[in-house]
User: What shape does this take?
Amino acid sequence: MQTLESSSVDLVEAKDSATALLPDFTTELYKDAYSRINAIVIEGEQEAHDNYMAIASLLPDQEEELKKLARMELSHMRGFTACGRNLGVKADMDFSKKFFSPLHNNFQEAFSKDKLPTCFLIQAILIEAFAISAYHIYIPVSDPFARKITEGVVQDEYLHLNYGQEWLKANFETCKDELIEANKVNLPLIRSMLEQVSKDAAVLHMEKEDLIEDFLIAYQEALTDIGFNTREIARMAASALIG
Assistant: This one.
């Protein structure tokens, strides 16, 4: 029978073990990497706000709901800005704007042509799945302040992912071909983004393989829910990521 004292020791050891896995949030190396990671999430939330506002203009019957999602993204942006401030880190926003520019440009091109399915794929599926996967991997190795902020954000992001899924599912038969083409163009950008951020993420104890795996799981689950079958999803992944 385990004694109360031995149980207490086990809890202390478990806590010490978990703490040992955390990075040192005070080092210059960590803060330098965090300046870019933090900028990416801040810019990502700004992009999401702008994208949902754009989509709202194409869907006037759902304008209020989409504007509500956009406002939530601004709230997330303020929260992540506070995370950087808490660590005494200035976000490298020049880097983050360049980081997002390919997806940003593709969204703007689709929006200018009223390609609503492509807009939804980029923002409500690709970007949201990217964000959710990154937040999942980040939370266990984050500082206490950022952990609380990020846990709240993740719950909201699932709502956004689900919103995009539901619209695309309802319109699947008419937008399937466009989604396949949009996937071919935009999924490789996510791979490139993950590659760009991998070294900084590793400093934060976030491994590239974990980020990729978590993203692919979230993305494939979304595609399945929308209406694609397993063979179609495998073909889409291969055409976009192999080569």
